[in-house]
Amino acid sequence: MRGRPRKPTHLKVLHGTYRPDRAPKNEPQPDPSTPSCPTWLHPEAKREWRRIVPHLEKLGLLTQVDRTALAAYCQLYARWWEAERAIRQYGMTQTTETGYVAQRPEVGIANTALKQMRAYLNEFGLSPASRSRIDAPTAPTKPRNAFADLG
User: Fold this and answer.
1) Which of 7, 23, 42, 121 is least buried, going by the fewest C-beta atoms within 10 A?
2) How many Å apart are CA 121 and CA 131, to the nearest integer?
3) Is 93 helix (H, G, I), strand (E, B) or coil?
4) 6: helix, coil or strand?
5) In this predicted model, what pLDDT tens digit does every residue of 49-61 receive, in sequence order?
6) Measured between alpha carbons, how far is 74 from 49 in angstroms, rounded to an integer?
């Protein structure tokens, strides 16, 4: 498949670019309930899952079928986090046996993880650039109780 990846209809609605004449006739509508966190995730990935899921729920961007993509993002986050910890502890370079100063492997791991994380963040509308294209509906306001003001 060539060109840009197609954007799901719910993201087009949030971006304000939805056009019924261009909408797919039978687009799948996955169950909008929150997926459970995989038990096998790295502990730091689980922390990121717990941090990010409420935000995705609030935006209405999370469904059961997104579990794998979200788990992949969280696992990449944990990989980046571990690489950054190693860089902080050992530095960005190391001296080889021959005296050559080389980049530590963790620098490449961190850079690759960040690049892959950015792709997932864009998919979920969680980067500053992708978020600026979303026109999210305002949360419904709770009706005021007129009787509460009397007492």
Assistant:
1) 23
2) 10
3) strand
4) coil
5) 999 999 888 877 7
6) 6
